[in-house]
Amino acid sequence: MTKLKDLAHSLGLSQTTVSRALNGYAEVNEATRDRVLVAAKKIGYRANPTARRLALGKSHTIGLVYPPKLMPDLLFLQTVAGLTETLSHADYDFHIVPALPQNEQKVYQHLIKGQLVDGLIVARTCIEDPRIAYLAQQNFPYIAYGRTQQDLQYSWFDLDNDRGSVLAVDYLYQSGRRNIAYLYDDLQVNFAYQRHTSYGQRMAQLNLPTLDGHCGHTEKMGADALGDVRSRMPQIDALIVDNPLAALGVLRALLDSDYVIGRDIEVVVFGGGAFGSILKPVPMIMVDLGDAYDIGQQLGQLILGAVKGEAVKQILWQPSLRIETQ
Fold first, then answer.
1. Under a CB-based contact definition with an 8 Å cutoff, are residues 248 and 273 in contact?
2. How many Cβ atoms are within 10 Å of 229's Cβ, its own excluded?
3. Alpha helices (H) along 115-218
4. Taking the model in full, what pTM does it have?
5. Are 97 and 107 spatial neighbours (Cβ–Cβ below 8 Å)?
6. pLDDT digits over 39-80, tens only?
7. 180: closest CA among 195, 191, 168, 198?
8. pLDDT digit string (tens) for 116-156?
9. Phi–psi pair at 156, nearest 5 degrees
10. How far apart are CA 104 and CA 116, in angstroms?
11. What values do phi and psi take at 316, rounded to 5?
């Protein structure tokens, strides 16, 4: 393995100069820096990451703290793939740090104080999010996958959740459905709150009765929520589910029942493309949230910009309705 002293000897420079050139110090002139970088690439030299972190206070690592029980989500995994590729092109590693919600604040503090990451991505943003408030207070580079209701300026990527619910309700209404129930994730999470609120507003505009239930973010909770709304509205003829994991439980429960999907009941799923191939016989109606891999790449660009101190950038993607008949 090539060492720093070998690289410095081959260039006739001091180890200090070579180290500063590799790490982008401004006092090293451009010609010398370029010469060092070319030579390092040619002989395959790569700085020891631990030594580099200690010297610069930089880890070249981006972090995401995420609840372990939500990691099986296929959309999440596709997003991570796009994010990882974008960061790798910029020579950054990407670490997912599992943490229970009650421990997240301590994990954020540990990552920042230990200089283990250069930037953080906050996912599943809440209406009022203490994580974002903490990162803003620490003046630490971060972005959010989702908005909050807080009056803070930061970079985020989000989907127009209000528009998604309007698309779903309007499609079902135009299809002749009038008893449309809605299943939601944790309403403290901003995307769930926005989708649920928009559903209620659009139903009121159409003079339709509302019926909702908490489906969480698991298959079992989705199936249980379906049973609950069916008991309260036996005449239900349409259902909107705000996340694909819960929807998977809903659809499997319907397949095991006397309901015929597409005839007796229509189901619209936010992000349902993630499991379309799993339920091939089922006609799928989806609020298409966009390609998860592309979203990951967008998040990667945003966090790299935040780490570099670039101006705040906010991206709001528009959903569309997708209908797949089998």
1. no
2. 20
3. 130-138, 161-174, 190-205
4. 0.82
5. yes
6. 888 887 776 655 555 555 678 999 999 998 887 777 888 999
7. 168
8. 999 999 999 999 999 999 999 999 999 999 999 998 999 99
9. -150, 160
10. 15
11. -115, 110
